[in-house]
Amino acid sequence: MSAADTYQHQHLFDENMVQIEMPLIAPELLQGVISNAPKAALNELEQIVSFGCAILSPESQYPDFPVDSLNNIARIIDNNPDIPVHDAIYRLYPYRTFLTNDGIQGIHTLLQTLKIPMPPEEGISHKIMDIQPSAELNKCVVKMNIAAKNVEVEVPHGTSRLAGIENGNRFVETEYQSKLLTEIIQTFAVGELCLVGPKGCGKSVLVFELARLLNQTIEPMVLYQDMTARDLIQQRTTKINGDTIWRDSPLLRAAKNGNIAVLDGIHRIHNSTISILHRLIHDREVQLYDGTRLLRHDRYDQLLANGCTVESMNSKGVIRIHPSFRIIALAEPPNVETGANWLTPEMLSLFMFHEVRNLSKREELHIIQELYGSIGPSFDKIINLAHLMRSAKDPLVKNLSATLSTRQLLRIAHRMSIYSPENAESSNKELNSACNTIQRAFLAKFLPALPRAALESSLRNVGIERVRPTNRNLESSISILDNNLRIGTTSSPLYKTDAVTKVPDILFYDVPQHVRLLEHLLQDFLIGNHLLLVGNQGVGKNKIADKLLQLMNRPREYIQLHRDTTVQTLTLQPTVRDGIVVYEDSPLVKAVKNGYILVVDEADKAPTHVTCILKTLVENGEMTLSDGRKIVPYSAKQILSPDYYIQTHPDFRMIVLANRPGFPFLGNDFFASLGDLFSCHAVDNPSTDSEIFLLQQYGPNVPTATLMKLVSAFAELRSMADVGQLSYPYSTREVVNIVRHLEKFPNEDLSELIGNVLDFDRYTPESLEQVTDVLQKHGLEIGSYAKNELALLRKKRDIQLTIQHSNNKSLSTPKHGKEDPENKPHVGGNTWAGGSGGRDTAGLGGRGGPYRLDKGHNVHQVSDQEKDDVPEHVKEAARAMNRKAFEERLKEIKMSAYDHSVYEEFRIPVKNQIQQLRIILTALQAKSKERHWQKHQTSGELDDNKLIEGITGERTIYRKRANQDPEPGQPQEKPKRLKLVVDVSGSMYRFNGYDNRLDRELEAVVMVMEAFEGFEQRVQYDIVGHSGEADQIVFVDHKNPPKDDKLRLQTIKTMHAHSQFCWSGDNTVNATKIAVDSLAKEEDECDEAIVIILSDANLSRYGISPQRLAQTLTSQEPKVQAYTIFIGSLDNEAQLITKSMPAGRSFICMDLKELPQILKQIFASSVLYQSKL
């Protein structure tokens, strides 16, 4: 009996997985594989088929194995019988990419059971030796040397490649990329493939090198989120006479002409869209919208052999797919932690997969030295930083490391090779220092506080320090002499152009800070980089860009994006003239044609999937337009069809302007999506000196004292906006407008003038009050416009005095004690209730009492040793009395009427903070509730994509904005989960008189309950407590949060009572562990899980080390992000604990005004743990 007819049974998974008893070998599958790989070893083919059958078993609970691709992998093995079995399996089923750690371990168990060894470590040589023509038409033979053995593979060869199109950068081969190229060529020989890797790791470079080697033409197609299946295949357009026709997409053009269709960003589009590729890939045929049909080349040739002619086939609409046609998809890895997994079984069946990792330090240095030579110690520190962050265990740091991709490192190396900070003759050493280079690459100024702290810590670890500025004023000069521009120490000849009307001509004052930025922009421009300027609105991004172009005499085209910008309108402007759709070139196309500078303003306003089509244009100089034309690089020296191809002018550049990402602008994060394609610069408001200089130019007659007041006041307002206390980031634009008005109307009332700037804050009284207070503090008399004045209260702290004293007095039965009608302070003794340092009675600081009682006097604390000396029977009696009093107090809380005045004592001090927190939550919700375009409507705004349908008489040619309905089968939007763990231990009540820690905690809880009201669908929160006698006391359950002030008052009264009556001890660590573990179990039910610990810093008393607490906080990363906020501390214990904790995990909040900003930092930073587009 043959192996193909043999059935074997075995348990395939270990005891932690589902055990499966099933046949290892399916005869029909194995027979098909054997027929495609006659040279392969039978046992290896059996192992591959057995693995697939095991995965396909319903009990395995893994995504389906793509059995349809087994024949392709068999052909690869037949070409190279020495390929490891694991590598062959992994090309079909890249499990490390889309499975969790538990799933990966299960697969490894299966591999061990099937006796499939893991592949050897890298080190086996792979080299392409020669490429020769094949006897077969449109094919070539690639000769490779793999592990000292010669391998020959017949690969499709190009036929109609544009002469001269090369990769923009010279390809520098490394051992890893050479190995990857040989593997890709082997896969390319038999079918379609997909390269999966992080952005900037070199996927596009590998594809271009493959095309160069095989003399192939690339048809790039950038995919975007709202792309339809029709967009992938054909689009409608009109002829000159008004007839409607269908236009082929780049994918179809590649299929007809035998080119490579590169689908860039296949992870972005919807599964329903990609489904149209199934028939094209599996059957090599597809039915088109215009009625024609593409047919596999061998079937087409068979029809010709049977007597059909090419003319008859064309008349019937049957078109041959070229045998050299291939599809290469490019994608970023799915984020398995957030469940955003695009690698579905359907997708697995379409391609064979190759993972592209980030290059190692040695490989990157090799490439950089080949391209730019040895650079210097500053760059060595930068590349050390990149690999330190990539290998970090902290998910926050690891996610930040994506910014320093190989692409970004090459750009930095290119710059430093020309403008070296080590050059002793260079006067702009600070400008090009390693620290400033990293700050620009990460846009560190706009990072949330926690990621910024993590970045600063990483910089210190590799020895990157700030360079102190030296003699800046000498560098801040601009001159034009003999048609040569000089900014600082950087010079460039003026550009000669006939389009003088397109050269900006603006009013600009040479502020030193802006001049230094202009010099840096000029340097980047001269080395060929595209520029990205990011900053708050009103800081002068447009002015700086226009001034740079004015100085260089460069003409520009300008385009402003908005939330309704589409891929089509970005490239072309369609209009209907005489029943004919006419496409007018957009400013983008005009700039590409004529070599102008394209200024893209408000880039963050457009959807990210729209702006991402700029990727191939910036990276390779290629783009396909909506009308079917194609932009090709300048290096395409022979243009086959000038009407079809648009050659990129060598002088074309892009300058992109965008607001800072995140709150309060709520734009899309352009920097996160495409930042590493540009040379990035953060544009900030001018420094104090620069701003005063600027205002003096606009208002030379305005008193300097007034300018100083305005500058200092608005600087404070900006800092408040940066931390989220204000929703509007007051910029230089507002100050300039005020000064220009004062210059023209010097007798104008300053109160009314400034009031006009603040009018939009009238509807948020809390913000208005904050702003007016700041202005008044800086001496700006705004008179009646100020609504309220807040008194500045100075906090006074009593000095703690410690006296060693031995108390030999005996202890009697615990009791409440007598009530002193005059409430005099009582120290020692065992008579009065509310005394201090006594025994037996309720009070503070004593021993043997039944519970704590604070009468508002100074506290005299007895030592822990004396408290421990209390006899056991006295302790038991005290506990019994404690429980009875506590139960009576709980009954009072639940039965008493709502006391508005008591609740207001806790709410009023934090009412501004409640409003600030609600602003943050509103921004969070507004971002998530962004409305989308709904197409195919019978009314609304005319859809540019359906103009042709309108001409033909269709009615559903409109679109309108509405809340997007979930797709069928799409999971419902999940809320964020927040668990607030509060400290209600005895020390909170005991030391409340010392630093008001318990009051602060109750106010913080009120702030959370008030602020989160109305956001239950977006954020669900629990409030649980811990003390010496319990590690999980539920005060608020997320399923039933308090709905009114009475319930909220009951919550804080219960917390207060527990802290007063609970027994001594600490359960901080246990409570943290329970909270973190419980949210980790809810991973599938929430979008994000955050635990926040509110506690005093009284840890050392109970032997709790910061390291132990930190370990507990991070025990469930990245499922749960946990933080601790200390709201009380004896001496500097909180500072010492925070220094010993991981960066960004611990905060000190002695003033509740800081709490909303701390929560904002936590919310903003946690976004970096989530998947990015």
UniProtKB/TrEMBL annotation:
InterPro entries: ATPase_dyneun-rel_AAA, P-loop_NTPase, VWA8, VWF_A, vWFA_dom_sf. GO terms for cellular component: cytoplasm; protein-containing complex. It holds the Pfam family AAA_5. Residues 977-1162 form the VWFA domain. Residues 831-849 have a biased composition (Gly residues). PROSITE patterns: VWFA (PS50234). Residues 816-825, 852-870 have a biased composition (Basic and acidic residues). GO terms for molecular function: ATP binding; ATP hydrolysis activity. Residues 804-870, 957-977 are annotated as: Disordered. Gene3D superfamilies: P-loop containing nucleotide triphosphate hydrolases, von Willebrand factor, type A domain. Residues 804-813 have a biased composition (Polar residues). PANTHER family: VON WILLEBRAND FACTOR A DOMAIN-CONTAINING PROTEIN 8 (PTHR21610). This is von Willebrand factor A domain-containing protein 8. It comes from Pseudolycoriella hygida. The gene is VWA8.
